[in-house]
């Protein structure tokens, strides 16, 4: 097996034996987010060429605002996936959070009470997911799929299948108002993002979650309180799904029974995965998820603005998803090019 | 009016911009509505862009996002099918931003957020369906096939149930849901017919049920005893009428509906009062189908 | 003589219908190195895992400092009761770096909640330096290390935990000559600081030069415990292979 | 930590040190299928009590026939999951297989040619999935999700959104005909089931697939041709999805654009998981998948026959899914009861 | 003297920007046991994996029987070219049983396609018996075995493959005294049957009693190769630690 007989050229080798770390530039360049941002820029250039409206402030805001839902939901989902779990029920929890909050709102409960109450209901659902997985030993997907079905039924029963509205203006301002020109829903997303970034990157909890997802047996053996971590993860995933539902209700001014469901779960999971979180656990970042969520709503938006017939939407979306990740791999391989 | 955008290449400066948020852009009936709208918009000097959710199923969330995007992009008018009560609020948000709103098959009226609605509401669709069955001689037992007890499915179920209550020769034996999953039509209709062998007519709001229902009726040997009320000529509705598994078909003049909707929205934009449009939906027997098809009904 | 730091009595363990331990008993004292030896499959790792809280014994007692410590339901409990472990399979998280792995279960923090990454890396580097170990940067992911480097990280983690009872399951199996000598030195130091060190090893040279007592397991049973300075290598090998019969059953303290 | 001081009671311990294997009875009892069959019997008893029609031959046949689709699709999906992969595109491949076959049929191509052609198209899709995963290093879920989106679009474009019919009677008999009183679609499912059972349990290929899913690195190191295995798995998964689509078309006599999609993917994956196949790879059986598929259609059928209001459907489905697996765990724990 | 069964020349390997091998060369001959020793992280396992086809060398040559064998792109290729391997991490499939693991990559079959399970189990049991190893039933899942039992299975797998070149990466690290002696015996037998056996080990006693030649790696480079009967233990340790300077660079056959 003669691989090559070319003499070694040392200049492009920064490394000593077993030592060497990558430069900061390399570190930034090899991140998946960087690729996704490049893909976003490419889409943006294309969309701008087809419609001047794309770069208008109101359009960019609208992209951001529609990504808020995916992102908030994806934050909790990402944390759970990094911790080695999976929550299929998120789409139904989204609806449950929205509906239970809106039910209270139309009954006259002021929103500062109704929102926490709605979230609390969903946290309880998260705890049930945890209990079913942990104590009844049901694999996470089946457990949360079961919860998904049950909640879908409950969501419908509770509302009798009808959307819940009208919602008080005060509540709608939670998403529709703005502070210093930035709309509230975007602010909420930023706050959630910062919180999750902090949790994941700067706390013991974050490290423990990565350890749990990276090697559950090692986490157990090294004395992590894995049940507590699991509980926290399922509850957090449910809470962000519910919060996304609440924000969505405030955005559209109604508690929609038909919002959420499989497609919402799918979108959040897509944002998580495209953002570089590994289903194998342990790996991923909030920045990646943020870029993934914005990319998804950017694609949706650009498809409308560029006037591509909607029949072609799904082809374009599929192609972009796959090529974004594929390009990412090729870029990295180039950076670490084999001699 | 604002500068043209959103995929308009033809529309010049000052042309009215209309966004049609199509619920099912790949579905033939809805695609036809979109095409007719685009023709009419061109006639009226407006610029109509079409968008819609990805995938097969009706996705109210994605539609609402697109209504909001069109509002943010300051379209002159937004047209959509309000697949649920929740559309009222986003349409109101659009109106508040100065956008003219038009709906098809919506509830219409003050609270709907719609400046101009066309097409019957679900109560009158239900009456049309049930009325046609009741007009046939004898007693009729309905088996209902709906997507779900929410959104569109629920509106339809409520309409049908309300209409049945007003007749004396039609009853409902049972209902099943398919979750808008075509692959569930056959087993669900099979189970429905097993549980309620007395069912004489299968009624559904989904064209996607047709092949499954037809197959179930035939395989159970109920040809001539149980009939499907076909939800349009697509999906094998015409063939079912031909072979006798279906005895009635719901038909609509969707193209005219679409054109009138565009006219109405343009009129509102120009400050005119739009014309009231007649209801163009009918349930017909085998002999009338071809005539209506020739007139552009589906 | 004070109560042993760690005492096992009649410990049994079943995995489904497989019996892994039949009757394990030994006493490990503070300030002593207690070796556990035995054939492959004798039950050494299972014993360690029971003490570590990873498995629960089906029968028998595990006493720390002479006290019945109630149900240790998890490794976290065991850790709180003063037990640090190096597992045979090392139990490293491959996607985390060396520093994180070394601090796992006991991450340093500032201001109550913020992870003190700087301190964590400093401590990791210091412990590794104390161990005279070269594994490159402490920010290298554990999954990229060589077999021996991983083992060193696992040992360093246990040392950093600084608990009164240390359980080391084959801590030198993948180590080179020098590194094995270093770890021997560390074990001597741990004994000098008064810790009870329980070490599982197949390397009888290592056992004879660092342990004070040695317990031999065979087929899930304690064959006997000997003071290293009172026993010959042949006798231990005989106990391992079954050539030397097990000590008479008894339920008092040994040695 | 005093666990217990009770003296050992040896009689209920079949084992010697490190030895002991379980008896055949225990082996059958601990299987997940056994639990699922018990759950099915329980549902059957309940349904029969509410409606005598449940046990009618035609109803039982109709349950079996509707499970055929899920089962055929789930066979390939299960093999792929056992081999450590995942195919999200299956729902769209289902549609593609049905549509391409039906397109050919309405053009007059006889079914013995049209069916293989339709399947071949889908096998090519499976090969594309493999290539994207292997050579572009896109994680399986994203790759197959991308394929899913793209195929959804292509399915629509090809048919212009309209169902493809009428289909020749000869083709419809492929599913609707019967041999010796057993309907053809059930016979197809049995044949597929036997083939996959044989593949998985009795061939080198099956062992290699388990090894690949159980520990990919070990499979590589031990000299398995992992790329070939991956290719085979993706192609097989696509082929069964397509075959399921073809059989479905023959059942209903139409190539439906709206059949397939997310819900079909979900149903097949549910059958796979509930049947005891682990998403972690390596573990699972065709028998389990068969029982899982039948259970799903049994639940749907029983819900209608028992007259439970359809609003409660999804609650009941969710509850049965979770409890079937939970009961399974409890049963096993009892069998291997701790002293 | 015939061409060496296995020859490495100037092999280099980078992992990203980390250099694992700088210049590795040695010759292993049929009918000889060739030991590779070196500090932790010296590059022994990386060398083995390159020969095994798991990694590809960035530079340098790997020759089997003096022939450039072209690109070995995978372990499957290497296996076809007559190489059997025991990896340091063993590479067992935990969910498969012992018999399956031992036959992996070379499952026996009947009638062309049917897996011959009976024969597979019989062969596994026979090989294990030949190795005088007790791991219980060959139908036990590998994941349930003790560390040493796994290692025995991995070694048995390589023996069962019966290839002319055997690479053993630390085959006795987890083994007890008796089992280590058994494996030593196996290695002697393999040599006697004319195989080229390459063995990585930290156990210098083992190396000195079973190997014919020993190559020392240090920091990814070959320091030198010696005949075991011509070198002292101290010299080898000195080469490992760097106390003895590396041999002058050369590109001809050694020893
Ligand atoms: N996949 C990899 N990625 C990055 N670095 C690696 C990888 N594999 C090995 N290395 C590095 O290459 C060097 C040599 O590793 P190798 O496993 O060959 O050592 P070794 O001689 O087998 O050591 P040991 O005796 O500890 O097993 C080490 O510094 C290790 O960290
Ligand atoms: N989780 C388990 N399930 C079933 N059997 C197990 C399990 N863990 C260990 N065993 C069995 O228990 C016995 C003792 O295993 P253990 O790992 O304690 O041995 P050991 O003394 O550490 O051996 P080694 O020196 O090889 O590491 C072995 O026969 C093993 O197969
Ligand atoms: Mg052990
Ligand atoms: Mg090594």
Ordered list of secondary-structure elements with their pairings:
The complex is a heteropentamer, with two copies of chain A (339 residues), one copy of chain B (298 residues) and two copies of chain C (255 residues).
Chain A: E1 2-4, H1 24-29, H2 32-50, H3 57-82, H4 90-106, H5 111-135, H6 140-159, H7 169-176, E2 178-179, E3 182-183, H8 184-202, H9 204-214, H10 216-221, H11 226-252, H12 262-274, H13 286-305, H14 313-335
Antiparallel strand pairs in A: 2-3
Chain B: E1 16-21, H1 28-43, E2 46-51, H2 60-72, E3 77-80, H3 87-96, E4 100-104, E5 116-118, H4 122-135, E6 140-146, H5 151-165, E7 170-177, H6 185-195, E8 201-204, H7 210-219, E9 227-230, H8 237-243, E10 246-252, H9 254-269, E11 281-284, H10 286-294
Parallel strand pairs in B: 1-2, 1-3, 3-4, 4-5, 6-7, 6-8, 8-9, 9-10
Antiparallel strand pairs in B: 10-11
Helix pairs in contact in B: 1-9, 2-3, 4-5, 6-7
Chain C: E1 6-15, E2 18-28, E3 33-38, H1 44-52, E4 59-64, E5 67-68, H2 75-80, E6 83-86, H3 98-103, E7 109-110, E8 114-115, H4 117-130, H5 147-161, E9 165-169, H6 177-192, E10 196-200, H7 204-210, E11 213-218, E12 221-227, H8 233-241
Parallel strand pairs in C: 3-10, 3-11, 6-9, 9-10
Antiparallel strand pairs in C: 1-2, 1-4, 4-5, 7-8, 11-12
Helix pairs in contact in C: 4-5
One adenosine-5'-triphosphate (ATP) sits between chains C (15, 18, 20, 38, 40-46, 88) and E (144-149, 174).
Protein name (chains C, E): Monosaccharide ABC transporter ATP-binding protein (CUT2 family)
GO molecular function, one term (chains C, E): ATP hydrolysis activity
Keywords (chains C, E): ATP-binding, Nucleotide-binding
How would you describe this protein?
The complex is a heteropentamer, with two copies of chain A (339 residues), one copy of chain B (298 residues) and two copies of chain C (255 residues). With 339 residues, chain A is mostly helical. Chain A is built from 14 helices and three strands. Chain A has one domain: ABC transporter involved in vitamin B12 uptake, BtuC (Orthogonal Bundle), CATH 1.10.3470. In chain A, a hairpin with a 2-residue loop joins strand 2 and strand 3. Chain A starts with a strand and ends with a helix. With 298 residues, chain B is an alpha/beta fold. In chain B, strand 6, helix 5 and strand 7 form a beta-alpha-beta unit. By secondary structure, chain C is α/β, with parallel strands linked by helices. Chain C folds into two domains: 164 residues, P-loop containing nucleotide triphosphate hydrolases (Rossmann fold, 3-Layer(aba) Sandwich); 52 residues, no CATH class. In chain C, strand 1 and strand 2 form a beta hairpin. The model of chain C has no long low-confidence stretch (mean pLDDT 91). Classes of the chains: A mainly alpha (339), B alpha/beta (298), C alpha/beta (255). Chains in contact: A-B, A-C, A-D, A-E, B-D, C-D, C-E, D-E. At the B-D interface, strand 7, helix 6 and helix 7 of B face helix 3, helix 6, helix 11, helix 12 and helix 13 of D. Strand 4 of chain C pairs antiparallel with strand 1 of chain D. One magnesium ion binds next to helix 1 of chain E.
